Amino acid sequence: MKKLKGSGFLIYCAFAVSLAPAILAQPTGHPAAVIREGVNEARLIALEGNTRPEANAQNDRGIVDDSFQLDHMLLQLKRSPEREAALKQYIDELHDANSPNFHQWLTAAQFAEYYGVAQSDVDAVTGWLKSHGFAINGVQPGGLTIDFGGSAGQVRGAFHTEIHNLAVNGASHFANTSDPQIPAALEPVVAGVVSLHNFRPKPLLVPRGQYTYINSSGTFHALVPGDIATIYNLNPAFLLGFSGKGTSIMVVEDTYLYATSDWSTFRSTLGLSKAFPSGTLSQVSPTGAVKCTNPGLKGNGDDGEAIIDAEWASAAAPNAAIVLAACKDTITTFGGLIALENVLNGPASELPSVVSISYGEAEASNGAAANLAYSTAYQQADAEGVSIFVSSGDEDAASADGGNVSTHGIGISGFTSTPYNVSVGGTDFGYTADNVNAATYWNPTNKPNFSSALSYIQEIPWNNSCAGTLVVKFLGATGPLSLCNESDVTSSSGSLNFLLNSAGGSGGPSGCATGTPTSNGKVGGTCAGYPKPSWQAGLFGNPSDGVRDIPDVSLFASNGFWDAYYVVCWSNPDTKVGGGFNCTGAPSTWAGFGGTSVSAPIMAGIQALVNQKTGSRWGNPNPIYYSLAASEYGAAGTAAALCNSNLVNKTSNGCVFYDITQGDNVGVCKAQLLVATDCFRFFTTYGLLSTSNSADQPAYSANTGWDFPTGIGSVNAFNLLRKWPTTGGSQ
Q1: 487: pLDDT confidence band, cut at 50, 70 and 90?
Q2: Three-state secondary structure call for residue 171
Q3: Burial class for 18, CB neighbours closer than 10 Å (0-12, 13-18, 19+)
Q4: Which residues are bridge partners to 376 per DSSP?
Q5: Are 466 and 496 in contact, with CB atoms under 8 Å apart?
Q6: What is the model's pLDDT at position 517?
Q7: CA 557, chain centre distance (Å)
Q8: Fewest C-beta atoms under 10 Å: which of 31, 346, 377, 541?
Q9: Is the four-CA dihedral 617, 145, 333, 414 of positive or negative sign?
Q10: Cα→Cα distances 197→51, 172, 266, Å
Q11: E-strand spans in 499-626?
Q12: Radius of gyration (Cα) for the chain, nearest Å?
């Protein structure tokens, strides 16, 4: 990893070195070769689920020239079923306090030794690629990822798919027009090409809106770190010295910051620098088998996402070392994935404690090979003791539609749906919707650090849509179908066209982690979700659907819809990418955002406090979260009432999680080509996202215990630290 000047990176390295594992109970077995026959180019097999939904006749602008270069593509390999089962068992043992393997985290070399791909299989695949003229740029240790490059003509010759130019919503793209095919002999080890296109994942940030009709007082609350410390009870932890010191939080990006001074200004203006002087920031481009190029400033606005992640991770763990890890996007691959894989396969001295990822793409659009790439990376992180936190999404229960009116039905992001990461959803504050005076929760004047929150604030699912029951009730509409289908969607308060959306905290079942969707990015066909993890099954409220459900936990993520949003110091002056603010004057004049891209780094920061207090890494902390939630809510959910977000004592309580029971993340939908997809309508243009086309079965409503809009609920950080298991294990 490239070292930059500054004490932050030195602190980060020093902590990581102290975490070098002393393996006491080794995993058993080694990868065996699974390619058992010679390559026959006449006997082919298709790699299902690896064509973008946009690659259709409507968008097609013709085949690219054969000489068109696709450098640094990633070929994703897979383990044998036996090695995959062994790895899953070992990960279970890592989280079992009664196992001799408890917290015996693996190094990258050990992970490759026991859970990689047999070298003879790697040689066979690279030999096949070379026979078609591809250049082999590198192979990750363990052989699960091969970096290769070549021309579109070579892709067509080897993978039997054409690369075409596309025009999508006014933007130029390219993509393969059919699923790649490979010789059947290679199928036992080849999962697919991570991508043969240049569609990029979405940063999950939402600029603050202008919703003055919602708040009768006309006063908006711009959240600063001191507010979050009060609302989610971080202050007692800080007073006891648990502020992230000695831990590192890596935020994964594809760009560097517009100005690192923004991070410093955020901290100094909002009271963090003086109180927590050990907090540091560094930017790195991790080297490894896959080429990582320093991205500089990407210039498309992703630096807005990067500064949100860096600032708000630091807000929750203000003495932690924040490490922004970024690689330049290749022509086909998201730079953040390259950065993550290189770090996980690199030296132990550069391994972070916690990782936050604020990008996403619907499972059915991301494709089976890309879904596997993220799942495999997170799985390795878990085995190495690294905790991964990923934004659930900002599209209600319809992640394929980018927050717009849904035409693709229910679906969730493949970046967040794996069993090896914590999926962080989004809430809003509920006092305006419930006609509670805002003064109940906010001081009329700011403290010196600009904070004004008085206590924990009751929460509801974040949902900006006219399909939301709380919006309907607040505006006095007959019902969501009526409100969403009013002429021009107007009311006495003015135009409400902005309510025609599916924008809000995402949550739903995994539906297309593998397989091929029926059409156009919709869950169906041979699609299948990730199996439900054992730690998620049985929590009251979580459905017996057999698949991984998200989110796991949620924190405030609104962009001002009901009143509040997050303050961000982002000085990029380019208004074309959403900039144009500065960081002078009162923070209320700074840039403002919502989105689960803010809640994820905050939750990552809270986990860093846990790591500091326990003196241990925890890998995927979900088994602990769900165990604590089960104890709190009870087998029948009756005990959950004690921690109901609306009713709980706001200043003193013993709750680890706050159960959010009102509201929903139902979005607006519309039939596509006269065929409704998870869309209930009653002779109307617009409908409500539903698990049925013929009945109103909202997708989804909050309820007692676990639910799709908010998962377990939100968190009381200090109580989480207090009730975290005392059993530690080695670091």
Answers
A1: low
A2: strand
A3: exposed
A4: none
A5: yes
A6: 87
A7: 13
A8: 346
A9: negative
A10: 9, 11, 37
A11: 508-509, 549-550, 553-556, 564-568, 591-594
A12: 24
Residue 145 parent element (H or E): strand 145-151
Nearest residue to 624 via CA among 639, 614, 637: 614
Q: State which H helix or E strand residue 669 sits in.
A: strand 668-669
The pair of structure tokens assigned to 249 is: 């939080």
- Of 671, 312, 710, the C-alpha closest to 504 is 710
Take residue 57 and report the two structure tokens written for it: 């006749």
| Among 213, 208, 281, 275, residue whose Cα is nearest residue 239 | 275
Which letter, b or e, does each residue of 162-181 get, where b requires 16 or more Cβ atoms within 10 Å of its Cβ?
bbbbbebeeeebbbbbebbe
Calculate ∠ Cα 712-716-719, nearest 5°. 110
Q: Which helix (H) or strand (E) covers residue 426, if one does? A: strand 422-429
Q: Tokens 């070549």 appear where? A: 150
Only one residue has tokens 């209320």, namely 588
Residue reference for tokens 């065929």:
675
Residue 498 near residue 468 (C-beta atoms within 8 A): no
Strands 163-168 and 171-176: antiparallel
What whole-number distance in Å separates Cα of residue 154 and Cα of residue 67?
Answer: 9
pTM recorded for the entire structure: 0.93
What is the distance between the alpha carbons of residues 363 and 522, in angstroms, rounded to a whole number?
A: 9
Q: Which pair of structure tokens corresponds to residue 465? A: 């849509």
Q: Counting every residue, how long is the chain?
A: 731
Please report the DSSP string for 309-339 in residue order: HHHHHHHHSTTSEEEEEE----SSS-HHHHH
Taking only the tens place, the pLDDT of each residue in 528-547 is: 999 999 999 999 999 999 99
